[in-house]
Design goal:
Length: 270
């Protein structure tokens, strides 16, 4: 196989998988790891990918790159819905308690399903018997808007400066408010989850809020689609050991799976 043909295939694999490993590529193409590294260097020079430790990722996966919540809402919708459904199963129906829902497109899908389920349960009960009230806490404007009209949910909004890109409140007041709470479960999103770097997001203020959520909750459930697996963005907000459960749509890589297992994290593949 000519180098140009092989490099084109490598570029396609990176786009499809989100990350490739030098050793895996060497095995796949029956070449040396040194040849793989030369191929990756050539592709990086051409702007087709970006080299990282042990492999390569798409060129648009930069540590500071962040899409708006509107852009994310239309991406990987089937996968995010499956993740949200698996997360909803962790919230007992018709039960009291408190949950915290982080900003993000996958967490917003969870809020939508929760809104639908509570409304259906209320309709089926016909007002008979005592109603258990679920407290839902969020700093995300879209999630608050989704749940604000539901009489079966006690909604609490954490205030702060609203960041337009994510439509979420951030800043010290948001962090302080989260730190004074102790919700039963926090459903948290992330832009990257990595074996050694842990959970990360590009913006420092978003990271500070997420860190407060992780610290405050009794149980932490992370909702990430497979494009976030093995990714590192600019600011770490939690280590793997700080997390109880990860819900995703694809089996993590061998390295990430081993790190999650060592940290005692349950992995749910939806």
């Amino acid at each position: 196989m000519f180098a140009e043909e092989r490099q084109q295939l490598i570029s396609e694999l990176v786009a499809e998988l989100g990350r490739v490993n030098v050793t895996d590529l060497a095995d796949r193409f029956s070449i040396t790891t040194e040849t793989v590294r030369r191929d990756l260097a050539a592709l990086e020079s051409a702007g087709s990918l970006r080299r990282v430790h042990g492999g390569a990722v798409p060129s648009d996966r930069l540590s500071t790159r962040e899409e708006s919540v509107v852009e994310r809402a239309i991406q990987r919708q089937p996968e995010k819905l499956r993740i949200a459904e698996a997360a909803l199963a962790l919230i007992p129906a018709n039960a009291a308690g408190s949950i915290l829902i982080d900003a993000g497109s996958t967490t917003e899908a969870l809020a939508r399903l929760l809104d639908q389920r509570t409304a259906q349960n209320a309709a089926s009960s016909n007002g008979n018997g005592p109603r258990e009230e679920l407290v839902v806490i969020t700093h995300a404007i879209p999630i608050a808007g989704r749940l604000s009209g539901n009489p079966n949910i006690a909604l609490q909004i954490l205030g702060g400066r609203v960041r337009g890109l994510t439509q979420a409140a951030v800043g010290q007041s948001t962090v302080d408010a989260a730190s004074r709470l102790r919700p039963d479960v926090a459903f948290v999103g992330a832009n990257g989850i990595h074996a050694t770097f842990g959970l990360s997001t590009p913006d420092p203020e978003e990271a500070a809020v997420k860190a407060a959520f992780v610290t405050s909750a009794r149980r932490v459930v992370v909702l990430v689609d497979s494009s976030k697996l093995d990714a590192e963005t600019l600011v770490q907000f939690a280590a793997l050991k700080d997390v109880d459960t990860v819900i995703t749509d694809h089996e993590p890589s061998e390295e990430l799976s081993a790190a999650l297992a060592e940290a005692g994290v349950d992995v749910v593949v939806a």
